Amino acid sequence: MAYAFILSAMAAPKISERLREFTQPTGEEELLAVDYPRPRLRISPWQACAVAVILVVGVVVWLGISARSDKSSGMPEPAALSGAPGAAPSEEPSEIIVSVIGEVAEPGLKTLEPGARVADALDAAQPLPGAETMALNHAQRLSDGQQLHVLPSGAAPPPAPSEPGPAAASTSGSGTSGVSLNNATAEELTELKGVGEVTAQAIVAYRDEHGGFKDVEELLEVSGIGPAKLAQLKDQVQL
Question: Beta strand 179-180 with 237-238: parallel, antiparallel or unpaired?
Fold first, then answer.
C-alpha cells in the first residue's frame, strides 16, 4: 500500500511545474514588442493649413496675371466685335433741324426731336388749305439737314427730302423716273419687277430706320437685295 502511494505521488504533477507552464512565453510576445522606425516626414495640422493657403494665393495670383495679359494683348471686347469694322459708335443727336418750304404758313427751319416724322414737320410748318400733303409719306422718319417741299394741290409729287452737299450729289446714278423709294408704300413697291411683299416690307423698314434713302445703291443694304437685283431695279426706281 505504501508502494502504491509513492507511485501516485510520482505520477501527479507538481503545482509549481503547472504554474511554470502557464508563465512560459508563447512566442507571440516577441511579435508584439517590435520597435517600428519613426517616419522620416511628419506634417503637423498647422503646416497642412499653411500649404493650403499658399496654394489658394498662388491660384488667385495666376488668374490675375492671366486677365492682365489678355487686356494688354489688345483683344477686342465682345461689344466691339458686334459693330461694323472701323466704325465708331455714333451718338444720337439731341435735336434735328429740317427745312420746310412751299405751301405752308410757317416756312423755314424747324427744330424737332430725334426720330421725328414728316407729320411732325408739317405740324410745325402749318400747311395752307390748298397744300397737297397726301402725296407725302407722313410716317417717314426725318434726319438732320433734310428739306421738305410742300407743293400746291394738283402739282407733281414733290421730291423726297434730301441732304445738301455730297449726300445729294451721290444720287446722280439713280433713275429720273420710276417708283419713289422714299415715298412709295409697300404695296406700290411690290409693283416693281422682282420685288415681293417680303422685300417691299424690308425696303420700307430700312427707309424708316435710316430716315430715307440717299442713294439707290443703298438697296444693297436691304435684306434680300443683291447686286443682280439692284441692277434690275435701278431703271425702275428713283429717290
Answer: parallel
